[in-house]
Design goal:
mainly alpha; three-stranded antiparallel sheet; 4 helices; 3 strands; 11% strand; elongated
Length: 98
């Protein structure tokens, strides 16, 4: 299972937003790992970021992402996408207001 996070091609005149967008894959990966349930540590250990794609390389990745674990009833994708929307939303609001 893998999830690709694409960077938007924003004009350089919106530098703050572009800088935040450039950080999205690393921030999303850190949040994903934090959200991943931990019993034996296998899921966290076998999750990686290459470029702008998060790879969950373990046989039960889809099950965990579908809420199989009580530790992550929403899985990891849904909370991670909400997190990305929050951090990008803050960057957009800052630029509009400041």
């Amino acid at each position: 299972m893998s999830i690709k996070i694409k960077k938007n091609n924003l004009p350089r005149s919106i530098g703050q937003i572009q800088a935040k967008v450039d950080k999205v894959p690393k921030l999303a990966f850190a949040f994903w790992r934090k959200t991943t349930p931990k019993r034996t540590g296998n899921a966290k250990r076998r999750t990686s970021l290459k470029g702008d794609t998060i790879y969950a390389r373990y046989p039960y990745a889809e099950q965990l992402d579908n809420g199989w674990s009580k530790q992550a009833p929403e899985g990891m994708s849904k909370p991670t996408f909400k997190y990305i929307q929050r951090i990008l939303g803050k960057a957009v609001r800052k630029k509009k207001n400041g």
